[in-house]
């Protein structure tokens, strides 16, 4: 599933952060979740690597598994033998379609609230120890938090535009959006007439602007 | 590595053996502020009490008894580690963490205030809040605990986030070292973290009787809580200041038999 806003800068930023996280750890996969506090769920917002297809937009309970520990305690954690605990493994498999051996997870904290989780699955063999891993995932979490905030802010703006009449000086401008949406589908004669009317409107506004400037 | 010679007041008699040798934690009461505790887990030798923070009739957070259970496993892991160090300690589970649907700050304050008023000797807090709005109230509670012979043992944050209560000087704050010895802990001469305890690849209890290998400051903290319980068991009535002083003098990098250097790992 390709998310509807997959090509916008905000989502590309988040995606690039999980790609970097995966690369830095030499990991099988990396993901960012947004916490939907009202529904008590975590939502995949970006995923890179094994099992990442079709994950964006999927949800699971926010108190389950290591991500749940991280949301609740606000602390970064590592689990090294996930697959040895059947319940833990099946919870993860259910939400990701992939059962890792190890997980590094860090909370995404913005304005004092946990807004999500960054997870890295199956770090590759390397010289670093766990304490360094926790430090690095913390730094990446800071980036992911900002990326997530930008994406949420964009969505909030889009929702506002769709749900409320656009206002400019108290005027309802939804007519402009409707014209923009329907003009490409109009026949040639109608489209031409609409364009002429819009040109007249533009000239009127230009005249009004000049008039105001003249009084300034 | 920071090395700082300590030769102001040599107290060679304060060794780990003097501090907690022969103690098992009996007579000491610990509150674990967390996600609850699975009282039936083989690594948990029975809970003294199990409570949770609920919303009262007028919307205020209040504490009520509940069945011993753990919504996530984090509290069970912490309680298991405290018991592994101090097997005879009496543990009460205070569930202040939930599934993220509500802010945890109000529940944390209510649970902490309750535990202080109930007179617990130690409160394990493998958690923190980053909400500045709770800073002052938490600070006042930490001071109240300090003056009532109730020691708060709190996890340091391992991310570039300003959080509480571990930053307060009235609490015992704990971060992780990566050695396997559960008894090894280090005094940190560079604030704000007080001590480093075992926090890497720790085998911890998981609900349903299982165990997992996990790393994090959350698991370093119960080691210091457990050792503190042993000290209080052997030397009842210590103030948090005295307890912290003994922890300091018996730390792996401070005690005389190790040369008395503050070698921070």
Describe what you observe in this structure.
The complex is a heterodimer of chains A (216) and B (265). Chain A has six helices and eight strands, in the order H-E-E-E-H-E-H-E-E-H-E-E-H-H. Chain A is of the alpha+beta class. In chain A, a hairpin with a 2-residue loop joins strand 7 and strand 8. Chain B is α/β, with parallel strands linked by helices and 265 residues long. Chain B has a nine-stranded mixed β-sheet with strand order 3-2-4-1-5-6-7-9-8, with helices on both faces. A two-stranded antiparallel sheet of chain B has the order 10-11. Chains A and B meet through helix 2, strand 4, helix 3, strand 5 and helix 4 of A and strand 11 of B.
* SSE topology string of chain A: HEEEHEHEEHEEHH
What structural category characterises the helix and strand content of chain A? alpha+beta
Enumerate how many helices of chain A there are, as a single number.
6
Radius of gyration of chain A: 24 Å
- Protein chains sharing the most extensive interface: A-B, 43 and 46 residues
Radius of gyration of chain B: 17 Å
| C-alpha geometry of chain B | globular
Gap from first CA to last CA of chain B:
6 Å
Uncertain parts of chain B: none
Percent in strands of chain B: 15-25%
**Spatial strand order of the main sheet of chain B:** 3-2-4-1-5-6-7-9-8
Instruction: Tell me the fraction of residues in β-strands of chain A, as a range.
Output: 15-25%
Q: Give the topology string of chain B: H per helix, E per strand.
A: HEEEHEHEHEEEEEEHH
Q: What composes the largest sheet of chain A?
A: 6 strands, antiparallel
Shape of chain A: elongated
Strand order of the largest sheet of chain A: 3-2-1-6-5-4
What oligomeric assembly is this protein in? heterodimer
Q: Can you lay out the helices and strands and say which pair or pack?
A:
The complex is a heterodimer of chains A (216) and B (265).
Chain A: H1 9-25, E1 29-36, E2 41-49, E3 59-61, H2 65-73, E4 77-79, H3 86-96, E5 103-110, E6 113-121, H4 130-163, E7 167-168, E8 171-172, H5 174-182, H6 188-215
Antiparallel strand pairs in A: 1-2, 1-6, 2-3, 4-5, 5-6, 7-8
Helix pairs in contact in A: 1-4
Chain B: H1 16-20, E1 29-34, E2 49-55, E3 61-65, H2 74-85, E4 90-95, H3 105-117, E5 122-125, H4 135-147, E6 151-155, E7 172-177, E8 186-187, E9 195-198, E10 202-206, E11 210-215, H5 217-234, H6 240-249
Parallel strand pairs in B: 1-4, 1-5, 2-4, 5-6, 6-7, 7-9
Antiparallel strand pairs in B: 2-3, 8-9, 10-11
Helix pairs in contact in B: 2-5, 3-4
């Amino acid at each position: 599933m390709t998310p509807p806003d997959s090509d916008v800068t905000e989502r590309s930023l988040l995606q690039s952060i999980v790609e970097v996280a995966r690369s830095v750890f030499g990991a099988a996969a990396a993901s960012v979740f947004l916490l939907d506090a009202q529904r008590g769920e975590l939502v995949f917002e970006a995923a890179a690597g094994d099992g990442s297809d079709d994950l964006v937009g999927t949800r699971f309970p926010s108190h389950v598994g290591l991500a749940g520990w991280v949301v609740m305690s606000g602390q970064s954690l590592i689990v090294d033998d996930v697959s040895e605990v059947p319940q833990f493994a099946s919870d993860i498999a259910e939400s990701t379609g992939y059962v890792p051996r190890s997980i590094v997870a860090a909370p995404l904290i913005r304005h004092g609230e946990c807004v999500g989780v960054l997870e890295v699955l199956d770090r590759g063999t390397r010289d670093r120890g766990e304490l360094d891993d926790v430090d690095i995932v913390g730094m990446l979490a800071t980036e992911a938090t900002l990326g997530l905030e930008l994406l949420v802010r964009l969505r909030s703006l889009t929702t506002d535009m769709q749900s409320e009449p656009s206002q400019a000086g108290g005027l309802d401008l939804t007519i402009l959006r409707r014209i923009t949406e329907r003009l490409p589908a109009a026949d040639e004669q109608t489209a031409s007439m609409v364009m002429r009317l819009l040109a007249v409107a533009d000239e009127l506004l230009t005249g009004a602007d000049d008039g105001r400037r003249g009084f300034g | 590595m920071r090395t700082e010679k300590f030769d102001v007041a040599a107290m060679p008699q304060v060794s780990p053996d003097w501090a907690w040798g022969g103690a098992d934690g009996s007579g000491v009461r610990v509150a674990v502020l967390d996600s609850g505790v699975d009282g039936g887990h083989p690594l948990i030798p029975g809970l003294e009490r199990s409570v949770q923070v609920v919303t009262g009739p007028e919307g205020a957070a209040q504490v009520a008894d509940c069945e011993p259970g753990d919504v996530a496993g984090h509290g069970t892991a912490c309680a298991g580690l405290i018991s592994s160090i101090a097997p005879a300690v009496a543990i009460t589970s205070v569930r202040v963490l939930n599934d993220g649907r509500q802010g945890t700050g109000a529940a944390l304050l209510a649970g902490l205030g309750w535990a202080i008023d109930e007179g617990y000797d130690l409160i394990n807090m493998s958690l923190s809040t980053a909400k500045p709005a709770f800073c002052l109230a938490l600070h006042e509670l930490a001071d109240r605990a300090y003056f009532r012979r109730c020691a708060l043992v709190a996890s340091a944050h391992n991310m570039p986030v300003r959080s509480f209560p571990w930053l307060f000087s009235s609490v015992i704050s704990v971060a992780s070292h990566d050695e396997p010895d559960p008894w090894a802990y280090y005094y940190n001469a560079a604030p704000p973290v007080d001590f480093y305890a075992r926090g890497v690849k720790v085998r911890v209890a998981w609900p349903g009787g299982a165990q997992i290998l996990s790393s994090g400051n959350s698991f370093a903290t119960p080691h210091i809580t457990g050792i503190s319980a042993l000290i209080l068991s052997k030397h009842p009535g210590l103030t948090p200041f005295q307890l912290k002083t003994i922890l300091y003098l018996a730390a792996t990098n401070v005690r005389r038999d190790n040369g008395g250097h503050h070698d921070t790992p």
